[in-house]
Amino acid sequence: MKNLDMMNTLQTEIIHTDNISVELNKLIDQLDHLAFAHHPSAPVDPEFDSIDWSSPIEYMALGYIDGELVTLLGFLRREILVGGKPVWVVGVGGVATHPNWQKHGLSSTLLKAAEKFMREKMNSSFGLLVCADERRTFYGRVGWEHLADEIFFTQTSQRRSLKTSVMILPLADQIWLSGEIDLCGLPW
Ligand SMILES: CC(C)(COP(=O)(O)OP(=O)(O)OC[C@H]1O[C@@H](n2cnc3c(N)ncnc32)[C@H](O)[C@@H]1OP(=O)(O)O)[C@@H](O)C(=O)NCCC(=O)NCCS
């Protein structure tokens, strides 16, 4: 575990995935694997391992300490169906911090930076992410609200469901519709 001092401020950037170089992509993959390998998720749903995740993601939010990539997340804009009605959301996924840098508030800071970008540039009503139940408090601290425990999605033309915590972040003055949440494609 690293110590953060006054010199180590987090530098954040939001980058479109079209503009990510091969080298940066490698660093992103490395960090992603490292973070998720240290915290193997304990999926509630036995179907979890057979899910294909949406790729590519549209934007990455990246956080650096002294030039080292230490925290990241991805997001995309998608029109989904809620109770059968279309809603634009920003789907957030792949939230990860290097194991040596966790519990310093870095991911929370990056989520806030990404939220600012979403509000200003993404023209969507809500952020939406899925997570393990034990992560609800973490996302709740930065403004996300637990909303449901199941989503529906489409994989290779098959409609499937996943039991998971669904969190939303209001991005506009709009009330969430009630009813089934259909991601209209692969989850993120
Ligand atoms: C989840 C994850 C991204 C959090 O990253 P992080 O940079 O450690 O996040 P933060 O530091 O902002 O917050 C994490 C915790 O540290 C606490 N924290 C923040 N600053 C702190 C500080 N200065 N001292 C001690 N604790 C601190 C937060 O309150 C939070 O507590 P909680 O987990 O009980 O809610 C990271 O643990 C990770 O990469 N996990 C593996 C991948 C994963 O599971 N991703 C989530 C998929 S949904």
Structural shape: globular
Q: Provide the low-confidence segments as ranges.
A: none
How much strand?
35-45%
The CATH top-level class label = Alpha Beta
For this structure, the CATH topology is: Aminopeptidase
Ligands and ions found:
coenzyme A
Order of helices and strands: EHEEEHEHEEE
Describe how the helices and strands are arranged.
Layout: E1 11-16, H1 22-38, E2 59-65, E3 68-82, E4 85-97, H2 106-121, E5 126-131, H3 136-141, E6 145-155, E7 158-170, E8 181-182
Parallel strand pairs: 4-5
Antiparallel strand pairs: 1-2, 2-3, 3-4, 3-8, 5-7, 6-7
Bound molecules: coenzyme A.
Give the key terms.
188 residues, alpha+beta, Aminopeptidase, 8-stranded mixed sheet, 3 helices, 8 strands, globular, binds coenzyme A
Can you characterise this structure?
- With 188 residues, this protein is α+β, with helices and mostly antiparallel strands.
- It has a single domain, classed as Gcn5-related N-acetyltransferase (GNAT) (Aminopeptidase, 3-Layer(aba) Sandwich).
- The chain has three helices and eight strands; from the N terminus they run E-H-E-E-E-H-E-H-E-E-E.
- Strands 1, 2, 3, 4, 5, 6, 7 and 8 form an eight-stranded mixed beta sheet that branches.
- The longest helix is centred in the first third of the chain and has 17 residues.
- It starts with 10 loop residues before the first strand and ends in a 6-residue tail after the last strand.
- The structure holds coenzyme A.
- The site of coenzyme A has 18 residues, from helix 1, strand 4, helix 2 and helix 3.
